[in-house]
Amino acid sequence: MPSSEALEGIFEKFLSGSRIFSNREVLRHDYIPKDLPHRQYEITRLGKMLAPALTLSKISNIFIYGKTGTGKTAVVKHVLDSLGRKANELGTKLRLSYVNCRLSGTNYRVLAEICRSMGVQVPFTGLAVGELFNRFRDGIEKTGCCLLIVLDEIDTLGKRNAENSLLYELTRINESLHGGWVGLVGVSNDLHFKDFLDPRILSCLGEEEVIFKPYLADELCNILQTRSRIAFNQGCLKESAVRLCAALAAGEHGDARRALDLLRIAGELAERSDCEEVTEEHVRTAQRKVEHDQITEILTSLPLHSKLVLLSVFLFGSHSSKDGVTGDIYNVYQELCREVKVDPLTQRRVSGLISELDIMGILNARVVNFGRYGRTKKVRLGAGERSVIEALSEDGLVKPLFRYVPRFVRRTTGLAR
User: Fold this and answer.
1) Which helix (H) or strand (E) holds 390?
2) DSSP per residue, 290-353
3) What is the pLDDT of residues 225-274, one digit of tens each?
4) pLDDT digits over 278-337, tens only?
5) Chain-centre distance of CA 62, in angstroms?
6) Domain limit, last residue, from 185, 212, 239
7) Closest C-alpha among 243, 249, 248 to residue 225
8) Sign of torsion, CA 251 256 257 261?
9) 151: which strand partners?
10) What is the pLDDT of residue 250?
11) What pTM did the predictor assign?
């Protein structure tokens, strides 16, 4: 059969209706349900913190944190939506602004989104950040509005020193305002995010905190059962498949996103195979696919120096029969920096990057004690070699380095030139 006819058949079959799904969109991350199971305490607490804003009373800045998939964004958007509706009913001058800092990416874009949310039109680019901030402040003064800003994934700003300035200005802006005020809600997946902040920012940003704990297995199972009743056609999903999704996600970090991903992908695999129901085997296949995609996404998004450190471990392991210690890895890393013509970081900072990659499971670093000679880390790959090669090869600067044989390794192992 010609490929065009085969594709036509595939498309027509899909358009005729899915045997498995009735509404797969409810299994996606951006779907916000009307009810959020097992998060009533956090909803109530956040609602009480923000309620004074309805009378234009200044609220304390709030910092929300917890691991990925614990419902932070869903809860914040749910509360913000209710708060906005109530503010409109009352006709108050309360304005709300939600910005995802990872998607916006820079000081300028974050601030531009905030300006637009309160009716201050600014160009997409072209102004100095200082000028943009002045327009933002003038907009609040002229309108006399009170602005509540939610900065989701705020850690993407706070970890870059150049971006700390925006957080500093926002936490201090009320000191220079004569009409209206600005309240901040920061949301972060990184439990150590505050370690990166300037103490002057931290003292203002973290006035009140809300911590989201990971979901338990039975809670995840309940969430999946609720969503699956809407997502799947009746009789197309085995209960054992739902429980396995919940158990796998709870066994890692209690991540509801991962549980939903597993269930959705398992359903899609069953659909593509023309199966009549989603089984545990589909879930296990989905798990392998999700793990591969997740590692690839993490590796491709690493900063350049983290990629060079990872590649240093890879190259050392490829040309040596032993695990490299921190000093060995740093020597190879310095060579790679010279090859791509970038200034190397200090050994202490590289040791910190190794620790970060170890936490993410990309490297395995264990501390070994050499007695009076001190302690160091033995480092080897945690991620699969194939995943590392595929992901880092997408970076045009890093890809040619896979053919490089470090001089340090040749000296220490006696390899021929």
Assistant:
1) helix 385-392
2) HHHHHHHHHHHTS-HHHHHHHHHHHHHHHH-SSPEEHHHHHHHHHHHHHHHT-PPPPHHHHHHH
3) 999 999 999 999 999 999 999 999 888 677 898 899 999 999 999 999 88
4) 999 999 999 888 777 777 778 888 889 999 999 999 999 888 877 788 889 999 999 999
5) 19
6) 212
7) 243
8) positive
9) 99, 186
10) 87
11) 0.70
Residues 184 and 279 in one domain: no
DSSP assignment letter at 74: H
Consecutive H or E run containing 166: helix 164-172
Length of the chain: 417
Distance CA 33, CA 277 (A): 25
CB 408 within 8 A of CB 320: no
pLDDT tens by residue, 158-192: 554 444 578 888 888 998 888 889 999 999 887 66
Contacts of 81 (CB under 8 A, 6+ apart): 32
127-145 pLDDT per residue, tens: 888 899 999 999 998 888 9
Rounded CA-CA distance 152/356 in Å is: 22
Q: How far apart are CA 277 and CA 266, in angstroms?
A: 10
**Whose CA is closest to 110, among 52, 49, 152, 76?**
152
What is the phi/psi pair of residue 325, to 5°? -90, 175
pLDDT value, residue 346 = 92
CA dist., res. 309 & res. 313, Å (int): 7
Nearest to 241 by CA among 200, 277, 208: 277
Residue 26 neighbours by CB under 8 Å, 6+ apart: 33, 227, 230, 231
Claim to verify: residue 159 and residue 244 sit in the same structural domain = no
Which amino acid is residue 244, in one-letter code? Answer: L
The gap between the terminal CA atoms of the chain, to the nearest Å, is: 55
Please tell me the distance from the alpha carbon of residue 253 to that of residue 355, in angstroms, as a whole number: 19
DSSP state, residue 60: P
Give the range of the structural domain holding residue 141, as residue numbers without chain letter: 40-212
pLDDT at residue 192, as a whole number: 66
Give the chain's domain count: 3
Cβ–Cβ under 8 Å, residues 89 and 73 = no
CATH number of the domain that residue 365 is part of: 1.10.10.10
For all residues of the chain together, what is the average pLDDT? 86
- Residue after which a domain boundary falls, among 143, 178, 212: 212
Answer yes or no: are the C-beta atoms of 111 and 65 closer than 8 Å.
no
CA-to-CA distance for 12 and 27, rounded, in angstroms?
24
Say which residue the tokens 């004074």 belong to. 52
